[in-house]
Amino acid sequence: EGKYCHKMYSSKPEADGEWDGAKPLDSKINREGFHTGSPSIAPDGSRMFFTRSQLTGNDLTESKIFMSVNKAQNWGAPVELKGINGNYIAKQPAPGILFGKEVLFFSSNMDGGFGGYDLYYADRINDETYSLPVNLGPEVNSAGDDETPFYLNNKLYFSSTGHPGLGGFDVFRSEWNGQDWGKSENLGAGYNSSYDDIFFSVNEDGKL
How many whole angstroms separate alpha carbon 203 and alpha carbon 207? Predict the structure, then answer.
């Protein structure tokens, strides 16, 4: 009946602990004709990162990462991040800290990787500009697809079809020792199953 696109919504907690009704973010964020998703927020709450994509049939043919600044409790007009985006798919941004610097993790199929989608990071230069992406290497990336990064307390959580698992996408964890990534660890049954397991959250204690 028409073209329907993913949109991002927000909801606020109420005094009784419940959440109010979800409301779509305005047209500055949810651009007409694009799929908008994979949001993540900088630790200080000042910036939101997200993906703006297009599909051809069921194939992801365009995807770029954008950033919006929080201004007076409203998200400002987003900007396409320089240094990260290119003539390839860039998706699923997640902020983190490496070598004492703020970085942005993301998944991409750019040339030079180990498989389909690999995980990368780029150093933040300023709000709109990042350094050239760095591949996270063979302890994290595989010959399959490695996606949905989330970083907390020196641990990177992500989903992969290439590392040994129970099903399609399984959830894995790799620990950063200050110089290198540790061997990716499958989180096992209870988190993973014979299905694709790609959506998860982590609290401040690093527990799923």
Answer: 6
For the entire predicted model, the pTM comes to 0.89
For tokens 């204690």, the residue is 205
Copy the structure tokens of residue 42: 């900088």
Q: Which two tokens stand for residue 63?
A: 């995807």
**Residuewise pLDDT in 10s, the chain (208 residues):** 567 899 999 999 999 989 999 999 999 999 999 999 999 999 899 999 999 999 998 899 999 999 999 988 789 999 999 999 999 999 999 999 999 999 999 999 999 999 899 999 999 999 999 999 999 999 999 999 999 999 999 999 999 998 877 777 899 999 999 999 999 999 888 888 776 555 444 444 444 4
Q: Which structure tokens are listed for 87? A: 């003539």
Contact, 158 vs 145, CB < 8 A? Answer: no
Sequence-distant (6+) residues with CB within 8 A of 200 are 150, 157, 171, 191, 208
Q: CB–CB of 136/118 below 8 Å?
A: yes
Give yes or no for a contact between 84 and 66, defined as CB atoms under 8 angstroms apart: no
Euclidean distance between CA atoms 36 and 126, whole angstroms: 23
Q: Report the distance separating Cα 53 and Cα 61, nearest Å.
A: 8
